[in-house]
From TrEMBL:
Pfam families: TonB_C
Name of the protein this chain belongs to: TonB-like protein
Domain TonB C-terminal: 69-126
GO terms (BP aspect): transmembrane transport
Organism phylogeny: Bacteria, Pseudomonadati, Bacteroidota, Flavobacteriia, Flavobacteriales
Organism: Epilithonimonas xixisoli
Entry-linked InterPro entries: TonB_C
Superkingdom in the source lineage: Bacteria
Amino acid sequence: MNIFEKITMKNLILFCFLLLGGFVFSQTKDSIISTEARAEYQGGDEQFKKDIMKKFRIRKVHGKGTFVTNVRFIVERDGMVSNIKAKGENESFNKEAMRAVSKMKPKWKAGMINGENVRCYFTVPLTANFSD
């Protein structure tokens, strides 16, 4: 039995649905309070959701139940992602969420104010149900 047979369609659909829950945008003292344009993933939010799902290795998450984590990272002025952190109750889910974000290759389009790129924090809530 391969990994795809072990993952039920119900769990995969639930994971996809909950991943589409949304993005949260925030800034810190290093960033400007309001931006003309927020940082954006190449291809937009929908492409980000697809790409993180491709990179996420479900088999690396240990335990059963519903897990929630908030992945927070900085989109730098050059579009690179840095300072990736995840906060949630399941450590393996947190680690895999951070790894998935770090493996995403396309650069982001940096946030802008007054025509200049600024550093921006992004928080992405992820929820998945891992049950038989």
